Predict the structure.
Amino acid sequence: MTSDISRIQLFSHPSSEDVPESRPNFLFITTDQQRWDAVGIHNPLLRTPNMDRLATQGMLFDRAYPTNAICMPARASMITGRSQRGHQVFNHDVNLSEAIPVLGDSLGNAGYTTALIGKAHFKTSDLEDALPDHPPDGASLHEDGLWHGPYYGFNYAEIQTGHAYPAGHHRVWLERNHPEGIKLWRKENALIEGIGGYESWKNAIPAEWHYTNWTADRTIDWLQHRPDQPFFLWASFSDPHKPFAPPWPYCEMYDLAEMPDPVPAEDVSQKPPHYRWAREGKPYGGYNTTQEDWQGDRYREIVAHYYGLTTFIDDAMGRIFDELDRQGLWQNTHIVFTSDHGEGLKDHGVAAKPMMSYECVNRVPMFWHHPTIAPGSVHDGVSTHLDLTPTFLELAGADPLPGAEGRSFARLLSGETDTHRDAVVVERISALGSEEPMKVKMLITEDWKLLHYGSAPYGELYDVKNDPEDITNLWDSLDHQDLKQRLINRLLEVLVDDELGDPRLILSRRGLGGTLRDQSQMEAEPSHRVDMGEKSRGIAGESEPEEET
């Protein structure tokens, strides 16, 4: 493939007649806040046979990381192939710019039809800002088919927003079909009041009405009515994100007595000050519950519910796989599974996704299944979500995205090579308005992990092989100063090498980073990209509880 400026073209959408029949399909499955070890292959207590099937019959990426361990930046990287420096979505306060080329643009040009079912989270959240002037009510938007996309490069979209709360297209479906289900979501209507604090309860909503089941149902329906073209379908599940409120039987599936103890909270006196702040529950760019919510059976119930939500998703995935089998699509579909980031789950005394080094927060499961991949393949080098879009596009025979920083690992999947990257970077910037604003760039290699806080008088350095839980900070160790400087130099190399990919591919008629679409197509598309009130409220106007960043 040539890489000079002559390959730049305006995105158009050729008919399916122009597309070779051999083009593969793609089913991209994601979860929200699922840590790397919350799968059966890494945790014998967890029942996830469908996730395990992908891992054992395809390639397991054993050390996979997002570009940023919070939802919006991580998901923006998934569809742009850019880091937070490239797409500028550095936390939950910034929308993904509509001017940036996205995965669906290039896939559409290559003859693919694209769909997103479930959680998107490319925007902040205001329904009023997202919708056009004088919008119809949300129910009409759904029922009358007035909006199902396009949305950030996806031809078709049905969006679920919120956690343990009905919103978006799912809420409209619930209001139309099971209106009594709206109130059943509430904690005060729980089957049994939870003991795990405000984060945990036994949800009274029937599993059949839950957004996990809805996401699978809508994915299956799309497969049954899809256009006669190769497809890229993203099934995006919103759990096991907090609050941990699974419906029956998943709320009773795991025995509290069998739940593991957390990794103990270590001495953090040799770590940056925000480790102590998070322990104290201070609102610096991260989140932590009070300790009384996370003791004894309170803690064990939260873990049991987290596991239950994960198994619920696995069961839903199994139904989608059955539909692929029924249609004979399994043999020509790349099935890719991952999560946007992890969950502390009280390991090291932290919850959710604070700005810290720990694997439980930053490392995610990632599996890639296709009949051409040798079953049982394991890539034990470091991997990054930055490379997903370039790999999808190469396998689809589509043009690379202008400005993408990632690199395709298609040769790794085919067995032509067993190496890809020797280092990856995870970045983080604290939320806008934080009393203690912070920036960090974390370099992860086979043997070491380095966290650089710019001009701050502290940093972190860990021996990954001998200290996998990041207990002992070697940043100030006299014996490790030469190594620290080499890793700082390597961090700079990675940042420079990856930044904005090939600059010759960035130009377009819309300027730097502009979306390469045909002008007539742009005029035909709506000028807005609606996310049905993503994250902040339901379509009917009821506000969702605030979510931490």
